[in-house]
Amino acid sequence: MSKIAFIFPGQGAQVCGMGKDFYEQTEIGRQVFDRASELLGFSMPQLCFEKNDKLDITEYTQAAMVTTSIAMMRVLMDKGISPDVAAGLSLGEYCALAAAGVMSDEDAITTVRQRGILMQEAVPVGIGAMAAILALDAAKIEEVLSTMEGVWIANYNCPGQIVISGKKEAVEEACSKLKEAGAKRAIMLNVSGPFHSKMLTEAGKKLGDVLESVEIHTPRIPYVANVTASYVTTADPVKDLLVQQVSSSVRWQQSVEAMIADGVDTFVEIGPGKTLAGFIRKISRDAKVYNVEKLEDIDKVVEALS
What we know:
alpha/beta; Malonyl-Coenzyme A Acyl Carrier Protein, domain 2; 10 strands; 306 residues; 4-stranded antiparallel beta sheet; 4-stranded parallel beta sheet
């Protein structure tokens, strides 16, 4: 029997105008955006739909991305399409928690707002860096980094693409060493911090304090945790996994492989961009992948999956 996974992109996929058609043309979408504005004390439609400098600043990006993806998801689910499992890349994991009923939409939005602030404040701009390493085996990257200090694997995205993170000088040195080891390219990323590195351990601990007041429910459907790449079916480990996630590797490729092994053959990427769809096609040629980033995409997905 066919299984459907809802998957949600992370930071970096944001784009001005994201979700605008959902806000203007659906009651459900409008309610999600307006509720976010009410909870956070600033205009979410203004942040997402109008040209501004804030959308790319972590403390705003995270809440904007989660609000947008949840609005899109709620419209899709209202049309009768529900997932068997959910997962999200880094920040996107909070949308997966909402999809699985682990966290309310409101708590997901307010928690990532705090998460964004904590991550933004954790390391002064310019101290940390991230880089994408292309066309080099993960085991080889792990081997090279094991001889270095101050640099770690941030993301296992898909075969041939791994992201490293850490102190700027260490990341630059690692790029040189990894190219010597056979990497096709090493590209420094335009990010404001060394995300998913041990440099953010303290931010994770502070997030734990934020999560103390957040109500966590037993998942209605399983979700796949970034940290372990395994299914979560109870409420018990959720908060600890979210604390660890801030400073741990995102095991996205392994997460997708776990879902495929469980019988998932259809993935619906919900949110701006098609980054995750691209990763999945490199992980499995057999998987069917759909995207919801415009309101018109909803009907196509409903028609294909109903």
